[in-house]
Amino acid sequence: LEFRRVLFRSRPSSETIKGANLYICGFPKSMTQPELDELFQQCGNIITSRILYDNSTGIKRNNCSLILDI
What we know:
With about 70 residues, this protein is mostly beta strands.
């Protein structure tokens, strides 16, 4: 399994705005929260990370949201 590091910033960088809000899709449903954190720690300090679940079924989706201080 290969992951490519791609970060999209929705706002310009500056000293007052350091974080990056990311929505990532396409990773394996078998991925755990610790594995997700380990994968993205190399991109910057993780402020929050969350694997998303379907609200009606409770089944894990292959999406997550991250806020990084990069």
